Amino acid sequence: MVEWITTPGLTDYREAEAWMEERATAIAAGKADECIWLLEHPPLYTAGTSAKADDLTDPDRFPVFQTRRGGQYTYHGPGQRVAYTLLNVGKRGHDVRAFVQDLEAWVIATLDTFNVKGEIREGRVGVWVERPEKPPAGGGDVAEDKIAAIGIRLRKWISFHGLSINVEPDLSHFGGIVPCGIADHGVTSLVDLGLPVTMDDVDLALRQTFETVFHPPT
214, 117, 212, 114: which is closest to 159 by C-alpha? Predict the structure, then answer.
């Protein structure tokens, strides 16, 4: 059974990390259910295990948190739905790469409920949308913007951290970093794409699509 928790307001990042550590330990010990935690953070940057110092272009803009999740620099802030996924990967296939692909598929299925076509790209973790109305990218390719980020950590095969979907964040806040180390593409949100989507709408879509991707552990 997966417990769903939605926390209103803005959650302190270190408090969230501490809670996830405790919950992951309890899940591994069989003392707690798996959990999806939906929340928002105040404006901040996080550095994953692959973060490069040069990608933090404005270190004084917002608080910067070093974290042991995978990935590079990411922004979190109001208007962005963070979904922390505390799931037993050991009982869900024992395959980290497949688990990350399932997270991507979950985001894509969620976006599809709003008629937004999310896509994945080789060598670029996260979910992207094409922006044909923008000037072409380098090489004449269709411009693409990132709409969701993914970064996880495992302890005893229990995942924590997770994903974030841009619903209506201040996109200028991404300007203090090179998001996920990718300078050639931009970022977008559901509202930036012209959709009057609320956080509640996204939460409902996440719950409706979860079981189409993640089946009960065996």
Answer: 214
Phi-psi region of 61 (alpha: psi -120 to 50; beta: other; left: phi over 0): alpha
Q: What is the DSSP string of 60-82?
A: TSS-EEE--SSSSEEEE-TTEEE
Q: What is the pLDDT of residues 146-180, one digit of tens each?
A: 999 999 999 999 999 999 999 999 999 999 998 75
CA distance 64 to 47: 7
Please identify every residue annotated as catalytic: 180
* pTM check: above 0.70: yes
Question: Which of 6, 78, 5 shows the shortest CA–CA distance to 44?
Answer: 78
AA identity, residue 8: P
Cβ atoms of 206 and 198 closer than 8 Å: no
